[in-house]
Amino acid sequence: MSHPRTVPPRTALSSLHWRVWIDLADCHRGVTGVIRVTGVTGGGGGTACRRTVAGMTEQFSPPPAGKPTSYSRVTLSRIMTAVDVNLYGTVHGGVLMKFVDDVAGASAARHSGGTAVTAAIDEIVFAEPVRVGDLVHAHAQVNWTGQTSMEVGVRVVAERWDSAEDDPIVVATAYLVFVGVDVAGNPRPVRPVLPETPVDERRFREAEIRRAHRLAKRKAIQAHRGTADTAVAG
Q1: In this structure, are residues 134 and 159 in contact, taking their beta carbons and an 8 Å threshold?
Q2: Where does the HotDog ACOT-type domain start and stop, copy by copy (predicted)?
Q3: Alpha-carbon torsion, ordered 94, 98, 99, 104, to 10 deg
């Protein structure tokens, strides 16, 4: 009689890369949790697994192969002009927010290999004002991936028009959540991100903390309102 294998605790995992798909009954590694993998058809990438749940057998595809963090890195640059300013003569925050969303969307689409849409802006900080004539660079990368969602981190720096020889200064930072979607607009699986450096691994872990805080905040607000609505605004 065969027995289901149990999933080792997170602290026992040897890699952040495993953690991404630990709940998906990964047939490549045979990690099945409370679900027993009864067989594997084919022999390589793209094969389908069979799993037995409550006496019923279901076929499912393994998750797509992961990509390193560096694969998702994207940089956009532009010079700020007079049409970008607010009433105070500095670049409008909304202009920078769109710039942030553009570069984050490009990074999410590159990593996921298809369309990805903005689900949330987790945090955005405006550290320094941006002025007309500044050359602004927005750098983005995928920090974390779930089954269908990704966190993208963005760092915006500016080269001052009147001090071009100085180092660029950080003017904004942001974290955004994107969801991969198919042609019908439905969520689709996204491949895992594979951290390459200690900094990448730190960003991965911090993204998990931010996700836990988002979920906890939503749960607390729902409990306070006595409703199961997913929206927290209004």
Answers
A1: yes
A2: 70-184
A3: 140
- What is the distance in angstroms between the CA of the first residue and the CA of the last residue of the chain? 55
Domain locations in the chain?
10-60, 67-208
Give CA–CA dist 224/216, Å, rounded. 12
Q: Where do we find the tokens 């009147």?
A: 162
pTM for the complete prediction? 0.71
Residue 96 pLDDT > 60: yes
Tell me the C-alpha distance between 229 and 218, whole Å.
9
CA 130 to chain centre: 27
- What pLDDT score was predicted for residue 163? 87
Q: Distance between CA atoms of 209 and 196, rounded to whole angstroms?
A: 19
DSSP, collapsed to helix, strand or coil, labels residue 218 as: helix
CATH fold label, 67-208: Thiol Ester Dehydrase; Chain A (3.10.129)
Contact 234, 222 (CB under 8 A): no
| Measured CA distances, 106 to 27, 73, 190, 200 (Å) | 31, 9, 15, 19
